[in-house]
Amino acid sequence: MKKLLSGVLAAVVICSVVQFAGAQASSPLDQKSLARIYKEVRHELVMLPFYGVFDNLSYKVDADGTVTLLGQVARPVLKSDAENVVKKIEGVDRVVNNIEVLPTSFQDDRIRRDVYRVIYGNPALSEYQVRAVPPIHIIVKNGSVTLEGVVARTMDKQIAGVQANSVPGIFSVTNNLVVEEDEKKK
Question: Which domain holds residue 71?
């Protein structure tokens, strides 16, 4: 009887410890922790060895420690690499990987190269090429081009769009470039 009672008591204690630990693990993160996670996720994604101008990675961090990865990549290995580095960040409880791997196509590869040449070969936009990760990302999917990233001036956004439209064989160009000077006004 004593063994049975002590076994039941031990089970109750273990269950309450597990519930307490679970409640603490799911408690929302404070602003300081969220800001740190945002900063670390950005750093880890930018430092990925295969991340380049033909990839677009973005993310969101929820208060429960969930990081959702978004965007498009030209190489499948980049999708798994991004998830693996984010999982290792302290405070990240879960990673939802919604990164799209772009289909491989000789035509899309040609369009990527040609759009890169006309954008970064333009004297007005060449300053963006010298950065470790160029801020204008060129996403090509089935002949459609999307420009993602950040430029300093509205004129740079317009020039990039016009240059991309000048490449033959493109079905459409979507210019999602964000202008820094417009962001500062907000």
Answer: 31-101
* CB-CB contact of 45 with 5 (8 Å): no
pLDDT tens-digit profile of 107-118? Answer: 999 999 999 999
Whichever domain contains 133, its CATH number is: 3.30.1340.30
Note the pTM of the prediction, 2 decimals. 0.80
Sign of CA dihedral 14, 15, 18, 19: negative
Q: H or E element: which one contains 16?
A: helix 2-25
In contact, 159 and 127? CB cutoff 8 Å: no
17 vs 69: CA distance, rounded Å: 33
In a domain, 49, yes or no: yes
Dihedral, CA of residue 16, residue 17, residue 19 and residue 22, to nearest 10: 170
Whether residue 160 contacts residue 136, with contact meaning beta carbons closer than 8 Å, is answered with: yes
Q: What is the mean pLDDT of residues 48-70?
A: 94
In which residue are the tokens 């289909």 written?
Answer: 103
Residues β-bridged to residue 139: 146
